[in-house]
């Protein structure tokens, strides 16, 4: 039985197969509308989510399966003190596969060790968000045609942003990917990402504070929000939250072929005036998220 706890749980070859399946699903979703007839997905969300939870539910429903679960810890037996280990043992009696989001890093790994069904990490604290990474990889691949030979700018909260950490971990496995890390000093990528991932894989990267200077060299700009829930101090959050705002003026500095991605939700880091720019790909990215989760569910259930 295979789980998805980290983007590195799949080899590059396995990822290519999964992304090919997701592409085929995107071209003809109806072909896959009964693949999961009779199968159930449990969504165990101990932390709030809109896109991730609903895209998992949409994915399973699109495949002909059904969904059960909870959308906050308060509405589950966790409020009574039930452990993750006990919850997953019970859920294994009810469902065929499970997607879990939890504020504590490593919780999905604990669940997987006790589970009788495949577990998908739908985000654990500031650690990993592998299905968002699969979505990001599919989006880049569909827009540019490849996951090799491009320069990506990661902008905003690079310290607490689990989407950024997961994406860097994945992209260092591809050829000639250059990283421009754009953040204030206080929100730079953690040392373990800089040293154990980027430097250890001989990835070319630079750390800068100025978004305008970075724009002309980028093929992909990956914007992130400054996350209020990861800060210990409200004052510190308020000081950081408007550090980078992408607007039309900054977009004029970019290549015609550059695309803007964002894991969403956005707060105000991308002005709504950018939405009409053909290079704004974040809503398309959300659509790809459904296809890639459909492919993932099929793969983990052995239905591909």
Strand order of the largest sheet: 7-6-5-8-9
Please count the helical segments: 11
Low-pLDDT stretches: none
Order of helices and strands: HEHEHEHEHEHEHEHEHHEH
* Helical amount: 25-40%
Q: Rg from C-alpha positions? A: 19 Å
Q: Describe the sheet with the most strands.
A: 5 strands, parallel
Average residue pLDDT:
91
Question: Termini, distance in Å?
Answer: 15 Å
Number of strands: 9
The assigned structural class equals alpha/beta
User: Could you tell me the strand content as a percent range?
Assistant: 15-25%
Overall 3D form: globular
Oligomer: single chain
Describe this structure in words.
The chain is α/β, with parallel strands linked by helices and 304 residues long. 38% of the residues lie in helices and 15% in strands. The strands form two sheets. A five-stranded parallel beta sheet has the order 7-6-5-8-9, with helices on one face. Strand 6 (177-182), helix 7 (191-199) and strand 7 (204-208) form a beta-alpha-beta unit. The longest helix has 19 residues, at 282-300.
Brief summary of the model shown:
With 304 residues, the chain is an alpha/beta fold.
Secondary structure: elements and pairs:
Layout: H1 12-27, E1 40-45, H2 51-62, E2 66-70, H3 84-94, E3 97-102, H4 107-114, E4 119-124, H5 130-144, E5 150-155, H6 162-171, E6 177-182, H7 191-199, E7 204-208, H8 211-214, E8 220-223, H9 234-240, H10 248-251, E9 259-261, H11 282-300
Parallel strand pairs: 1-2, 1-3, 3-4, 5-6, 5-8, 6-7, 8-9
List keywords for this structure.
304 residues, alpha/beta, five-stranded parallel sheet, four-stranded parallel sheet, 11 helices, 9 strands, 38% helix, globular
């Amino acid at each position: 039985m295979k789980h998805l706890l980290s983007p590195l749980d799949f080899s590059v070859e396995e990822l290519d197969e999964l992304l090919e399946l997701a592409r085929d699903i995107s071209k003809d979703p109806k072909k896959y509308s009964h693949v999961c007839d009779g199968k159930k997905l449990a969504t165990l969300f101990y932390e709030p989510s809109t896109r991730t939870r609903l895209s998992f539910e949409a994915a399973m429903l699109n495949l002909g399966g059904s969904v059960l679960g909870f959308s906050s810890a308060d509405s589950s037996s966790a409020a009574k003190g039930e452990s993750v280990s006990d919850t997953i043992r019970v859920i294994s009696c009810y469902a065929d596969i499970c997607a879990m989001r939890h504020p504590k890093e490593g919780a999905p790994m604990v669940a997987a060790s006790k589970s009788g069904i495949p577990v998908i990490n739908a985000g654990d604290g500031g650690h990993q968000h592998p299905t968002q990474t699969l979505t990001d990889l599919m989006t880049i691949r569909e827009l540019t045609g490849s996951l090799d030979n491009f320069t990506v700018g990661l902008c905003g909260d690079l310290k607490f942003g689990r989407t950024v950490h997961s994406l860097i971990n994945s992209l260092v496995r591809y050829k000639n990917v250059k990283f421009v890390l754009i953040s204030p000093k206080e929100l730079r990528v953690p040392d373990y990402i800089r040293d154990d991932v980027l430097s250890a894989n001989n990835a070319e990267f630079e750390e800068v504070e100025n978004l305008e200077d970075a724009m002309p060299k980028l093929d992909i700009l990956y914007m992130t929000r400054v996350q209020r829930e990861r800060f210990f101090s409200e004052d510190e959050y308020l000081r950081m939250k408007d550090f980078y705002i992408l607007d039309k003026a900054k977009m004029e500095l970019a290549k015609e072929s550059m695309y803007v991605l964002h894991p969403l939700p956005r707060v105000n880091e991308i002005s709504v005036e950018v939405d009409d720019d053909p290079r704004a790909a974040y809503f398309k990215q959300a659509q790809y998220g459904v296809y890639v989760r459909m492919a993932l569910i099929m793969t983990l259930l052995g239905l591909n």
